[in-house]
Specification:
By secondary structure, the chain is an alpha+beta fold. The chain has 15 helices and 16 strands. The chain is elongated and about 90 Å long.
């Protein structure tokens, strides 16, 4: 019988304890990203993996890459066109509208799988994971400072090097229209030099041409009008103030060519990049989307958000050691002897800040200690037949060159474990 394989571009992730394994990095990255979100007092939101395809067509825009090549959509048995969500913002706004919560303020975070249908390549899979935040119901100003503060906190949490935060402002409706008109007028003589993709962008969302990966287009754009000359002084002031406030914490750069890939972005936009990622150097991005709620049938709801590509971000992380101490519990008795497992249970109830790794497999003490070291355990608690008979345990100090091990009573073991 043939073996069953996973679908193309959809990976299994398994925590085998090896800190070089990308899956282990992903799991630890997710934990620590959640910690930052909760430290900012954001509330979790979970939305369905499947949505009406029109949700993403209406929100992202029919000229966006998501709709043109990435959306994973199909007809169900009732011939309804549905899609696996390609991003988290549209689903979050849909949920808020549906629950009639679109006239109140919200600070939300999410983390989960997303899907794209384009051909898988290194670092880009059909099923991938995103973490994000949405700040809903707040006008431009304070939320921009809050969200850049959070980006800085994430960079600090993971001690990332060689990265920077780019910021820009796309202007209000009036200044955005004036800039787009000027950009169209400038590019008109160069139409024959633009590829099909950029011509489509020019006709549907001219700002997206600034994001072109075509080298000839980028060469043409070198002398194009700058949005800096069209945005209002208040928008320029916001950019300069954010840069000044956070420049001593993170490298913040104003980049007037920065745009985002989805049509719903308006006003302030940003992304975080790393020189360690190569050509596709962005690992986090977002911006303001004040008109999305109304576009999806809800009330006017000024909003700003961001998303992090977890796999790409995890590849940057060097330090994935957890803040919790790890202690290995090694039994050298018969597997049918229940007393050691009761002791392990009592230890866990005494100090929930410690990760207690109880090794269930048979093996020699040497092999079990080798595994304890691989799991970054600071201590090993050893109970064999002799210790069981005497009511004692051995504490082995794995990271202390001056102390090897000592035998203690079970009561002393409890006191030691509680004090860690």
């Amino acid at each position: 019988m043939d073996k069953i394989h996973s679908l193309t571009g959809m990976l299994d992730h398994y925590d085998d304890g090896d800190i070089e394994n990308i899956s282990v990095k992903i799991f630890e990255t997710e934990k620590r990203i959640k910690k930052v979100f909760t430290n900012y007092k954001y509330s979790e939101i979970r939305t369905p993996a499947l949505e009406d395809t029109n949700l993403f067509v209406r929100s992202a825009g029919d000229a966006s890459d998501i709709v043109n090549k990435e959306i994973y959509s199909f007809n169900d048995r009732n011939e309804k066109n549905i899609a696996l969500r390609p991003e988290g913002t549209a689903s979050a706004i849909r949920a808020i509208i549906e629950k009639k919560l679109d006239q109140t303020n919200h600070k939300l975070w999410y983390l989960g799988p997303m899907w794209r249908y384009e051909r898988p390549q290194k670092g880009r899979y059909r099923q991938f994971y995103q973490a994000g935040v949405e700040i809903l119901g707040y006008e431009e100003g304070a939320p921009e400072y809050e969200i850049i503060s959070m980006v800085c906190s994430i960079i600090e949490e993971f001690k990332l090097k060689n990265c920077s935060i780019k910021i820009n402002h796309l202007g209000d409706k009036e200044s955005k229209k004036l800039f787009c008109d000027a950009l169209i007028e400038y590019l008109e003589p160069f139409k024959d030099n633009l590829d099909e993709k950029d011509l489509t962008r020019l006709s549907k969302n001219p700002l997206r041409v600034l994001d072109s990966k075509n080298k000839e287009t980028q060469s043409i754009l070198e002398n194009a009008p700058s949005i800096r000359d069209f945005i209002k002084p208040s928008a320029l002031s916001l950019l300069e103030n954010i840069q000044n406030e956070y420049k001593d914490i993170c490298n913040v750069e104003i980049d007037f060519t920065l745009v985002r890939g989805l049509d719903y972005y308006s006003g302030f936009v940003f992304e975080a990049i790393s020189s360690e990622l190569g050509a596709q150097d962005s690992f986090l991005g977002g911006g303001r989307y004040d008109h999305l709620s109304a576009k999806l049938g809800g009330k006017s709801l000024p909003s700003i958000g961001m998303a992090i590509g977890v796999e790409r971000f995890a590849s940057l992380v060097k330090d994935i050691t957890t803040s919790n101490k790890v202690v290995s519990f090694l039994t050298l008795t018969s597997n049918l002897e229940s007393k050691p497992y009761k002791i392990a249970h009592q230890l866990r109830s005494m100090n929930s800040n410690i990760i207690l790794d109880l090794q269930l497999s048979d093996g020699s003490l040497k092999s079990k200690l080798r595994k304890a070291n691989k799991n970054n355990s600071e201590y090993a608690i050893i109970i064999g037949e002799e210790e069981l008979r005497d009511g004692t345990a051995v504490i082995k100090f794995l990271n202390d060159e001056l102390k090897d091990q000592e035998t203690v009573s079970i009561k002393e073991l409890f006191s030691f474990y509680t004090s860690l």
